Amino acid sequence: MKLAAVDIGSNAIRLQITSVTQYEGIIKFKKLEYLRFPLRLGQDVFNTQKISEVNRRKFVKLMKAFKILIDLYEVDDYMACATSAIRESVNGKEIALEVKEEIGLKINIIDGNKEAELINKSLNKFFDEKTYLHIDVGGGSTELNIYKNREKLASKSFQIGSVRALEDKIATPVWSSMENFILKHLENSPSVTSIGTGGNINKIFELSLPRKNKRYLDFEKITEVLDHLQSLTFDERVHKFNLNQDRADVIIPAGKIYQRVMQAAKSRKMIVPDLGLKDGIIHVLYERNKSKKPL
């Protein structure tokens, strides 16, 4: 079985094609293709409330390229999900309809709660009886999910994101709302472990030079990496750490969002599983298709 996930974010757009096989009762997921294209739709939307004509044309071309790859890989099922940039754009629905009619690729414009739900599909194996705060920082929104005893206690999406922060488009009351949400649900939790998802925390993890098989960061290590990045110019961040340009400018504001959430929750440790929306989409597609045909 071959499945494809398209994650249409505010800072970049991703395609992942995965093969699912079963042998002697063991199911394996193998990544066949992964593409990340740096199309910053959020910069348009958070400043003008609409996607510009230039980026609209680029977006349609990109969706055409993704659809060609989906067809070439003979994918059994796919799902394309658009998050904050498209859902907040006044012409987002119109563009999604254009893609469907001209290319045949259906785009699901999802809200923050659905986004969080999909991301969490890929995280179940990390939960136990302890208290966890899942933090997913995107370009336009941050999704928070609180788990205890393997059950979700609360979930909320906030208009706080790396591109939005870069453009200085985060309203002060939104920060207060997020911190009040954390305090309300975690004030009596003595020990909270964070789980961080998103491209920027994955890069911060990579830059921390982790020990082999270590998939977590201490709050102090996150601070150390961010302090070092802030001491460098944009060009130095690009060349010294081989960062993509669209990563080099948002990694610091994104990192500060993770820090602020962890501080509010009094969390000192973060698991970084290198999973995200695309992985949750693949999980949903697998559940939807596993009974249709042999793997």
TrEMBL record:
Pfam families for this protein: Ppx-GppA
Domain Ppx/GppA phosphatase N-terminal: 30-283
Protein name: Exopolyphosphatase/guanosine-5'-triphosphate, 3'-diphosphate pyrophosphatase
Any one GO MF annotation of this record: pyrophosphatase activity
Originating species: Algoriphagus antarcticus
